[in-house]
Specification:
single chain; alpha/beta; seven-stranded mixed beta sheet; five-stranded mixed beta sheet
Amino acid sequence: MSRRPDEFDEAVALLDEAVRSTAPDDPGLSGRLTLLSSALRHRYQAHRDLSDLDRAVERCQEALLLALDDASGRTGLLISLGGLLELRAFRTGDAQDAEASVDAYESAAAHCPVDSPDHGRLLHGLGMALLTRYECTGRPQDIDTAVERLSEAVAHEPGGVALADRLARLAWALRLRYGRTEERADLEAAGGYAYTAFTMTPSTDPAHPDRACDLGGFMLDHHRRTGDPEFLKTGIGLLEQAAAAGTNRTVALHHLGAALHRRYDAHGLPADLDRAVAALTAAVRTADPGSMSRLASRAGLATALHARALRPGAESADADLDRAADHLEAVLDALPAGRPAVATSASILAGVLSDRHARGGAADDRAGAILWGVRAWEEEGADADIRITAALVVARMLAAEDPDRAADLAEGAIGLLPRLASLYANRADRQAMLSRLGGSAGTAAALVLGAPRGTARQRAERAFLVLESGRSVLLGHALGTRGDLAELSRTEPGLVARFKDVRARVENPVPDGFPPVGSSEIAAEADRRARTAGEQRRRAAELADLTQQVRARLGGFGKPPTPDEARAEAAEGAVVMLNVSALRSDALLLTREDITSVELTALVPEAIGENVSAFRTAVDTVATTEDFEELATAQDAMASVLEWLWDCVAEPVLTALGHTERPGDGEPWPRLWWAPGGVLGMLPLHAAGHRTGPTGRRVLDRVISSYTPTLRALRHAREQVRRQGTGPVAHRALLVAMPLTPGLPGGGPLSQALEEVARVRHHFDEAVLLCNPEVPTDPPADGAAIRSEVLASLSGVTVAHFACHGAASTADPSQSRLLLHDHQHSPLTVQDLLPAELDSARLAYLSACGSASATVGGGLRDEAIHLASVFQLVGFPHVVGSLWDIDDRTAATLADAFYAALRTGSAPPDTDRAAWALHQAVRGIRDGTDLPGPYDRTRNPYLWASYLHAGA
C-alpha cells in the first residue's frame, strides 16, 4: 500500500514527541526509540534524506543501550541496527559502517537460536552486510560467506513475495561474485534465481519492475560472456521496462546504459551509443547525491562518452573526452581509499587522458594518464586484470622516455598472470579471463629487450622468463599440479592419492549451456549450478593447499625452471622462443651456455598477418579445389610463404645458432625446439625454406625440429621419459580409425584410414583397434570408436594412434575435439582429456586435421590450447600432430614410414626416436622417395609440411 509523503512526517513528529516526553528510567523508552528509528528509516527510504538515516542509527543505538537485560529484544535491535548501518554504508561507501553492520549481525547471531523466527531474517541481513563490506573493502572471503548466508536465508523462507526478494538478493550476490571471478556456474545460478524471483513476483507488485531489472542485468552479463544476441535483446527490453516504472530507476538506467553500450560494441549503431549516454546521464541525475550508486553511474557514463569520442568521425569527440575526464576525476575524488572501484576508475581515466593527449598533445594529459595508470597498478587489492591492463598502458607510454621503468612495469604485470589463473576453479573461467589479455606477454618481453639497463644477455634472460611466465598460462597452471610423485607415493600414499583425486575433480568440466529463459527447468538448474560452483571453489582451494603440501616435501614440484635449470634443459638442443609485437620482434635463443636474442627486423605484425592469411587461404584451396590451375597457384602461394618464413625467421635463427649447413653423412643431426607463440604457431617453421637453389636453405635440411609451447612443458615431457626409462620396450598400441564420420558431409570419408591403421598395426605385437561400428574391418575391430571406449582404452597403452577427423574451436579452444562415432552428442574434447594421468603413455600420433594448430581466436593468442598439447600434458612425452587437414593417401604412407624409422632391426619401436623418425619420414615424402624417377613433392608442401613433433 502506498503512503502519503506527509504520513511519514506525522509519524516521526509524534514519535519524537513521545520519546521526549518519556522519562529516562521509563521501561517503555527503548520500545519508543525503536519505533522512532523504524519511522525514520521508512522516511529515509521515501525521501532519501541522509540525515533521517543518521538519526535512525542513533535512536537504534540508544534503544540498544537500554535493552541490556532483554536478550530477545536485544537480538531484534542488533538485527535492526545491522540493517541501518548496512543501508548507510551502501549509500556512502563508509567501510566503518560496513564493518559495524557485520559486527551487529554477528552479535545477534551469537544469541539467536536456529529455530527462532528471526533466524532467517538475521541470515539475510548478515549476507547483505557482508556484500556491502565486500564492496567497501574488496575482501574476497566476504562475498563467499555472503553467498553462503543468503543461500541459508532462502532455505528459511517458505515462499511468497518474501522468498522472491531473498532469491533476488542471492542472484545479485552471485552476479557480484561473477564480476570478480567470472566463474560461469555463478553467472548461470544467478540467472536461474533472478528468473525465479521475476516469475514469482506478480506484475501488480511494486517490486516487479525491480525484479525485471535484476533479470535484465543477468541477461547483460550472459551476453557479455557468451555473445548470444537473444540475451542482449531480451535484457534491454526488461531494463527499459524497469527504467520506466521501477522504484530504483537509477540502477535500471545504469544497467540499460551498459546494455545499450554493449549493443553498440556488437553492432556499431551510433544511435545505441547515444541512447547509452542518455540513459547513464539520467542515472546520474536520479541517483542520491554523494551515493556510491551515483559514482558508479558517473563512471559508466564516462566509459560511454569515451567510446563515443573514439567513434569514427565523432563531431563531439573533444567535448566527450572532457566530460569523461571530469566525471572520472570526480569519482576518484569521492571514492574512499582502498575501495575496489578506485583501480577500475583510475585505469579508465588513464585511457581517457591518453586518448585526449593523442588528439591535443597536452603534456598535462600525458602526465595524468601515467599518474592514474600507475595508481591503478599500485592498488594491490584490486583485480589482477585491471592492474595488468593499467601497467601495460603506462609501460607503452613510457617506452620512449623511460624505457627501464616501462620494462619494470610490464615485467611486474606479466608476473601476475599465473596468479590470475589460479583464482578460478574452472578452466573455462580462467580461459575467459585470460582472453582479454592476449598479447600482453609479447609486449612486455619487447619492452624488456628494448630497455638499456643491464647487458644484452641479461635483457634476453629477463625477456625469456617473461615469456615463460606469460605464455600458455593455462597449460602452466595445469603443469603446476603435475610432476613425478613416485617417491612421495612410497612414503605418503594417502597424500598422493588425495592430491590426484582432487586434481581430477578440479579438472573435470562444469557443463556448459543453460535452459532458455521461460523454461521450467531454470529453478532446479540454478540450485545445481550454485552447488557446482561452491564445490568447484572448495576443491580448487583444497588443491592449492595439497599442492603446497606436496611442494613442501618435493621442493621444485610443478614450479617453473630457474635460469640455470632452463639452460640445463637445452643440453639436447636449443630452444627458440619467438616473440612478435608492434614494438619489435625477436628470437630468444636458449642454449646450454646462455640465453641470447636475435632481433628479427623483417618480422612485423602486418607481414605476419598477410602471410598467415595467404597461407591458410592456400591450404583451404588445395583441400577443396578440383581445378588444376587453382591447385598449382595455391601450392605456389604456400611455397612463397615458406620462403618468406625462411628469410625473416629461420635463416637468422639457424645462423645465430651455428647451423649453417646440412650435416654430413654419418654426422649427428642437431635438434631444435621451436616455441613460436601466437599467430606464428599457425605456420610450419620446420618446413620453412626455398623450393629452389641449394638444399641447405631449408630447415628440414639443417636440423631436426620439434615444438613446445614453453620450456616448462618440455621439461614435463622429459620428466615422463626419465620416469619410464629410455630404449625400446614391448608396446601396447591403441589404434582408432574413422573411415566414415556421422554428421559430416557425405560421411567425411577417409578412404585410407583403415589402410593406415593396418600398416601401423604391423609394427606392434599387441594392439587394440577401435573403429566406426558401421564399417566392417578385417580383422574385426575390438570395439567402437566412441568417447567412453577411447578414454577407457587410453589407460595402460604406450602408443595411441588416431586416424580420424579433428575440429578446432576458435571460440572455445578447450572444446577442440577428435571426431569419433558419437561426436555429435558426446564429443571427445581437450577438456575431457585433462583429468587423465597416463603413466604408461609414450607416443601419441594424431593423424587428425589440425590437431596441433594454434588457436588465436578470442584473444587467447598466448595460449597453446589444442589436442597435441593436452596429450602431452596428460602423459605422452612425444606427440605427432598436424597443422591442417592432411591428405588421406599421404597420411598412410607417412605413418608407415614413421613407425618403420622408430625400429632398429627386429627390436620394438623406440619412441624416443620419434622426432628423428618423423623428420626422416617427412623428408622422404618431400623428396619423393616413394615416387618413380626424378619426381618429388618439394613444390607441394600441403602434402608434407603439416606434420610436426611436439615434446621431448
